[in-house]
Design a protein that fits this description.
The protein has five helices and two strands, in the order ααββααα. The chain is mainly α and 176 residues long. The chain has a two-stranded antiparallel sheet with strand order 1-2.
C-alpha cells in the first residue's frame, strides 16, 4: 500500500549512497552469515542427538529437540538477511514518521536504510550467539543463555529504533 501511495503522491526516489560505515556493516553481515553456516556445519557432527531448542526469559534451557534443529536459526537468519537486503533497496516504499519531500528524502532514506542494515547485522549476531550457546550447552560447557541475554536483546533492538525515530524527527526543519 505504501508503494501505491508513494507512486500516486510522487514521492521522490533519490539513490542512497552507502557511507564507509554502511559498507563495513554490509560486508560484516555477509561474513557473519557465512560464518554462521560454517559454525553450525562444523558443530553438527559433534553434537549429541538431543540439544537445547528453547530458552526461558532467564536464559535457562526449557526445551530439547533433535540435533538437526541447530539449523533452524541459520535458515531463519538467511531468510531475514535476504528479505532485509531486498527491502533496503526500496526505501521509497517504507512508512515514515514525517512527510517525505524532495528536500528531506535522501536524509530520511539514508536514516531508514542505515537502521535496517544495522538490524540485519544485529539479528544475525543474536542468532549466532544463541546457536553458539546452544552448542556449548549441548557439550556441557555452558548452562544456557544467561540472565543478561533478554535485556541485552531488547536493548540491541530498541535503542537503534528509538535513535532512528529521533533522528527522523530531528530533521523536521527540512520538512515541507
Amino acid at each position: 500500500m505504501a508503494l501505491i501511495n508513494n507512486i500516486m503522491n510522487n514521492v521522490p526516489v533519490p539513490k542512497v549512497v552507502l557511507s564507509p560505515f554502511d559498507k563495513i556493516i554490509e560486508v560484516t553481515s555477509y561474513v557473519a552469515l557465512i560464518a554462521f553456516w560454517l559454525m553450525n556445519a562444523f558443530a553438527f557432527t559433534t553434537l549429541p542427538e538431543t540439544i537445547p531448542t528453547h530458552y526461558n526469559s532467564m536464559g535457562e534451557v526449557d526445551g530439547y529437540g533433535p540435533k538437526a534443529t541447530i539449523f533452524f536459526l541459520p535458515v531463519l537468519g538467511t531468510v531475514l538477511f535476504v528479505f532485509l537486503t531486498f527491502i533496503i533497496k526500496k526505501p521509497e516504499t517504507f512508512n515514515y514518521t514525517v512527510e517525505i519531500t524532495e528536500e528531506n528524502a535522501i536524509e530520511q532514506y539514508t536514516n531508514s536504510t542505515k537502521l535496517l542494515r544495522f538490524m540485519k547485522l544485529a539479528l544475525l549476531l543474536l542468532f549466532i550467539l544463541i546457536d553458539y550457546k546452544t552448542i556449548a550447552t549441548s557439550k556441557g560447557n555452558s548452562d544456557g543463555l544467561g540472565k543478561w541475554f533478554l535485556p541485552f536483546t531488547i536493548a540491541l533492538i530498541f535503542i537503534p529504533i528509538v535513535f532512528s525515530v529521533y533522528k527522523s524527527f530531528s530533521n523536521k526543519e527540512i520538512r515541507k
